[in-house]
Amino acid sequence: MLLVRSVLFNTAFYVNIIVRMLVLSPVYFLLPRKAAYRIPKAWAASNNWLMAKIVGATFEIEGMENIPEGGCIFAPKHQSAWDTFALLPYQRDPVYILKRELMWIPLFGWYVAKQKMIPVNRGARGKVMVEVMERTKEEMAKGRQLIIYPEGTRRPPGAAPEYRYGIARIYRDVQVPVVPIVAHWGLFWGRRKLIKHPGHFKVRVLPPIEPGLDPDAFYARLQDVLETASDKLLLETVADNPHLPLPPEATERLSQIKAQPAA
C-alpha cells in the first residue's frame, strides 16, 4: 500500500506542476510580481494537500509569532524536497539565493526570474559575490524574507551537522533578524526516496537571533540553537510516529541523545 500511495503521489505531484505551469503561465507573467506569487504559493499548498490526502502525511507549524515584521532571514534545517516549498503559503514575500543553473531551465527559470530570485555561481568569488550581496540587500530592503539553508544541501534526519559560514557573512552584511526553523521532513519524504510515509509532525519556528552579534558568535549560536531544537524535535517526532522506518543517522543520533545525562 505504501508503494501504491507513493507512486500515486509522485504521479500527481509532477502532473500538478506541469499542468499548472502550462495553464497558468499566461496569467502568471501578466500579473505584477507580488500578485503572481499567489500562483506558486497555491501550487505549494496543493502539494501539501496531496501529501495529506494520498500519503497521509500532515504537519502543523508552531511559533509563527516568532516571525518578525519586515525583512528577515529564515534558516531552516534542510532534509527533503518537501521543505523547499511546503512553507511558501505561510511566507509573505520570500526570496531565495539559488544556483544560477536553475535559471536556465525553460519556463521554471522564467518563473524564478519574475520573482527576482538571486542567482549565484557557487564557485564564484570576489566581484561576483559582492554583486550577489548587493542584490540581497536590495531585496531585503523591500521587506522580503530571505531563505537560506545553513548546511547548504539536504542532510538526512539526525546526520552530523555540516554548517557553512556563508550565512554568517550575510547576517553581518544585511543586518536583519535570523529565524531558525526545525522539522524532520526527511522522515516522511526522504532524499531520493520513492516511498513517502504517513504520519503527523511539527514544524517549529524558533525565536529570532537579532542582528548585531559578531559573525563568529552568531555562527556558533545558530548551530547550537538549531541542533538543540532539532534533537528535541527528533525525539518528539519519532515518539509520535513509531511506525516510521528510521535512517541509520537518525537511529544513531537518537541513541546519542538518550545516552546524554539529564539536564
Automatic annotation (TrEMBL):
CDD domains: LPLAT_AGPAT-like (cd07989). Residues 72-186 form the Phospholipid/glycerol acyltransferase domain. Pathway: Lipid metabolism. GO terms for biological process: phosphatidic acid biosynthetic process. Keywords: Acyltransferase, Membrane, Transferase, Transmembrane, Transmembrane helix. The chain crosses the membrane at residues 12-31. One of its GO terms (molecular function) is 1-acylglycerol-3-phosphate O-acyltransferase activity. This is 1-acyl-sn-glycerol-3-phosphate acyltransferase. It comes from Rhizobium deserti. The lineage of its organism: Bacteria, Pseudomonadati, Pseudomonadota, Alphaproteobacteria, Hyphomicrobiales.
